[in-house]
Amino acid sequence: MTDAALAAHLAAEAGRLLIDVREGSDLAGKALGNEGDVVANRFLCEAIRAARPDDGLLSEEERDNPARLGKSRVWIIDPVDGTREYSEGRSDWAVHVALAVDGLPVLGAVALPGLAGEVVMRSDQPQSLPAMTPHPRFLVSRTRPAREAEAVAKALGGALVPMGSAGAKAMAVVRGDAEVYLHSGGQHEWDSCAPVAVALAHGLHCSRIDGSPLIYNQADTFMPDLLICRSEWAAPVLAEVARLAPGD
Questions:
Q1: Sheet holding 159-163, edge to edge
Q2: pLDDT tens digits for range 82-94
Q3: In whole angstroms, what is the distance from residue 71 CA to residue 53 CA?
Q4: Calpha distance 56→52 (Å, rounded)
Q5: Which of 178, 174, 187, 181 has its CA nearest to residue 218?
Q6: For residues 96 and 196, what is the distance between their CA atoms, to the nearest angstrom?
Q7: Collapsed DSSP state (helix, strand, coil) of residue 84
Q8: Is 240 exposed, middle or buried (0-12, 13-18, 19+ CB in 10 A)?
Q9: Which is nearest to 14 in space by CA: 112, 99, 83?
Q10: Is 113 helix (H, G, I), strand (E, B) or coil?
Q11: Which of 35, 113, 198, 247 lies 20 to 30 A from 240 at CA?
Q12: Per-residue pLDDT for 146 more than 90?
């Protein structure tokens, strides 16, 4: 099985497990989210280690192993991206499985198990992007919209679209439900590696909000900000972010 097929298979299977946990459990709230994290993480980590024993692995739900830093190939996973949304019975959560090679997100799969049907967005199966709306739609956090996103959307005549997980937001741009996902509240590598791999394969712009590249498999997994958007909106959005920067 190719790396891309493996990523898609594992994301889909983890998604099915998570739906089974949610539908068959008496747990609720944080306890349900924790159970989903444990089940999906165990499945993904065991499967990756069995299928690609020589590769590194970074998971949100595993103790970090610094040995990954010496590896060229590192799998970066988020077993449940949007645990809160998952535990609330919402659809805007995801499963992320990505492979970074020498720091670059070369392939990934993002499963959206809460949507009708088995939706898995893959970097090896890019689809044509839908037509854009004339005014950009900016995806933001349901509870903590980024200041920059609010300001840039206003400046560009855009509208805010609240949504849950990072993966759900990124895939909403790929699916044509929005044009821009601008995040400045801080994330970790597992929050964006698979979504970025899929978005890049679909021809979207992906970078830090200052335009610099996104690099993965770092010792510090924290990533302060992220921009995923239609390429047509990259320059205007980056220009507005720069204009908002302190001292400008």
A1: 159-163, 137-141, 180-183, 226-229, 205-207
A2: 999 999 999 999 9
A3: 12
A4: 9
A5: 187
A6: 10
A7: helix
A8: middle
A9: 112
A10: coil
A11: 198
A12: no
Q: Phi, psi (5° rounding) for residue 97?
A: -135, 120
Convert the pLDDT of each residue in 171-218 to its tens digit.
999 999 999 999 998 999 999 999 999 999 999 999 999 999 999 999
pLDDT tens-place string over residues 219-241: 999 999 999 999 999 999 999 99
Contact present, 216 and 189 (Cβ < 8 Å): yes
Q: State the chain's mean pLDDT as an integer.
A: 95
Q: Across the chain, how many H-helices and E-strands are there?
A: 7, 12
Q: What is the pLDDT of residue 248?
A: 45
Q: Is 81 annotated as a binding residue?
A: yes
| Residue 60 is assigned to a ligand binding site | yes
- The structural domains of the chain, ordered by start, are 3-122 (3.30.540.10), 137-244 (3.40.190.80)
Given a contact cutoff of 8 angstroms between Cβ atoms, the answer to whether 203 and 106 are in contact is no
The token duo for 196 is 């970025």
Question: What is the value of pTM for the model shown?
Answer: 0.96
Is residue 78 part of an annotated ligand binding site? yes
